[in-house]
Amino acid sequence: MPEPGDTVLARLEALRGGDLPTHGGRTLAYVYDSGLAEADRVGREALASFGSTNGLDPTAFPSLAAMERDLVAFARPLFHAPEGAVGTVTSGGTESILLAVQTARDARSDVESPVMVAPSTVHGAFHKAAHYFGVELVTVDVDPDTMRADPGAMADAMDAAGERLVLVAVSAPSYAHGVVDPVAVVAADAAGRGVRCHVDACIGGWVLPWMAHPDPWDFVVPGVTSLSADLHKYAYTPKGVSLLLYRDPALRRPQFFASADWPGYTMLNATMQSTRSGGPLAAAWAVVAHIGADGYRALVATTVDATRVLADAVRGTEHLRLAAEPDASLLAVACDDALDVFTLSDEMGERGWFVQPQMAFRGLPATLHLTVCAATAGGVDDFVVALRESVDAAVAAGPVTVDPDLRAAAAALDPSTLDDAAFDGLLALAGLGGSVDPASAGGSTSAGGTVSVPKRMAPVNALLDVAPPRLREALLIAFLDRLTR
Ligand SMILES: *Cc1c(COP(=O)(O)O)cnc(C)c1O
After folding, report:
1. Rounded to whole angstroms, how far apart are CA atoms 174 and 226?
2. So where are the chain's domains?
3. How many Å apart are CA 353 and CA 351, to the nearest integer?
4. Nearest Cα to 348, choosing from 22, 19, 26?
5. Ligand 1 pocket check: which of 89, 230, 330, 369 to mutate, most ligand atoms within 8 Å of Cβ?
6. Ligand 1: distance of its center to the CA of 23 in Å?
7. At what positions is N6-(pyridoxal phosphate)lysine found (predicted)?
8. Residue 446 carries which DSSP code?
9. For the chain, which terminus, N or C, has the lower number of CB atoms within 10 Å?
10. Residue 249 is inside which H or E element, if any?
11. Contacts for 138 with CB less than 8 Å, ≥ 6 apart
């Protein structure tokens, strides 16, 4: 007997009960809430009505090509892109970045071992692109006072890469610290070497155009050749949409892929996916049309005001400081030795606020990441109360410590020598061992190692924080492997 539709939908809703809330403004990472119920409805209905359309062939679904052209046309003036600029709708920021890197690589097929240069704060998607496409990523330490790219050091790295350099990347702003890199200088240095410069405006692309930012960061800078801006972030559209823009069609050309080398239809793709749902694109088209430029201006004003209030509250709270002066709508909060950010994050969680811990990296401190969105604005006073209480609680508890022997052992471990059993042991040691809760997983656990997520993450995070990056990666991959068995 088929399960009645309503029963299935009720079970689906119940599963969602264990998730972070996507609306209400109390989740300060992963999700973006405009607080506009009508915009949500428009997005949801467009998503549903185009969910079965297929972007595989734009001649079969001309509506999708039309919506893509419309979105690019809307975005072009926002980023001061010239008349001839072109763009592609992708599934997200990571895909936009992967494609920008693949395109830069393939535009220079004469280069045998290609290199790209970026500040150390550049998004992990560039590391993924390096891994997928065999482009070496050289990251350059940022100025520790501002967390911005250091143009002199970037230029030195460009020189060191020499003829192998195919791409330079900067952020507007960076995810971890919310600051805009000195785009004009870096892009000029790239252009002077005849090399592409990509601006990662994945998170800032739908914020910066509507606020006063003193320094140019988009296509107004002549050396900028491509730019990514996610609609599923501050355009407040359902997940699965980002824009990748190029200054001219020739720059985009190597992004396209065709294959006639098989007996089926000739494959012709602009992006990594082949069959792709028209749902997210239609939803983005509808939400952008509904909110419009004036709507976004108002949402950005609300968001930036809220960010300012939160930044002032952090400055005014003993033991806390901002890791960088924010340029847009993101904050990175650091603390002194009286507490640790991981405990602070747990304490905020207890009070119904999700803030995202970020580990220490190359001399930069561990921080809490806050993505502020329009719906958070109404709750900033509550947030500040919760933050002050959480600081008091975290100070009272004292910073979590990692046993020095464990720290030394972690530093000495070579993850490539570890087998499955060793990872099971390490995950248990890290506090991630145990069985998956069958109620929340909706099924039984498999044989082999199992994992669980503890309510208080501070001890786990503190341990991961002292693990060298390669070990941390290996441990989390082992965790994911077990979570998905
Ligand atoms: C979110 C983000 C990305 C990656 O985007 P996804 O949509 O998560 O794939 C890249 N760069 C920056 C600066 C981001 O904030």
Report:
1. 16
2. 45-287, 293-397, 404-483
3. 6
4. 26
5. 230
6. 20
7. 233
8. -
9. N
10. helix 249-252
11. 115, 116, 117, 118, 157, 160, 161
- Per CATH, the homologous superfamily of domain 293-397 is Aspartate Aminotransferase, domain 1 (3.90.1150.10)
Distance separating alpha carbons of residues 398 and 394, to the nearest angstrom:
6
Q: pLDDT tens digits for 287-335?
A: 999 999 999 999 999 999 999 999 999 999 999 999 999 999 999 999 9
Q: Which residues of the chain have pLDDT under 70?
A: 435-448
| Ligand 1 binding site (Cβ under 6 Å of any ligand atom) | 92-94, 97, 123, 125, 171, 175, 200, 202-203, 230, 242
- Report d(CA 273, CA 58) in Å as an integer: 13
Which of 30, 101, 174, 203 has the most ligand 1 atoms within 8 A of CB, as the residue to mutate? Answer: 203
**409-455 pLDDT, tens digit each:** 888 889 989 999 988 888 888 888 875 444 444 433 444 578 888 88
The pTM of the full predicted model, rounded to 2 decimals, is 0.95
Closest Cα to atom 4, ligand 1: which residue?
Answer: 93
- Atom 10 in ligand 1: residue holding the nearest Cα: 93
CA-closest candidate to residue 58, choices 261, 227, 281: 281
Q: How far is CA 343 from CA 44, 118, 256, 456, 472, in A?
A: 36, 32, 47, 8, 19
Protein residue with its CA nearest to atom 12 in ligand 1: 202
Distance 203 CA to ligand 1 centre (A): 6
Residue having the nearest C-alpha atom to atom 8 of ligand 1:
93
Cα(368)–Cα(331) distance, rounded to whole angstroms?
8
| Residue nearest atom 5 of ligand 1, based on CA coordinates | 93
Give the Å distance between the CA of 94 and the centre of ligand 1: 6
Side chain identity at 240, as an amino acid letter? G
- Ligand 1 pocket test, candidate residues 32, 94, 242, 358, most atoms within 8 A of CB: 94
Dist CA 174 CA 197 (whole Å)? 16
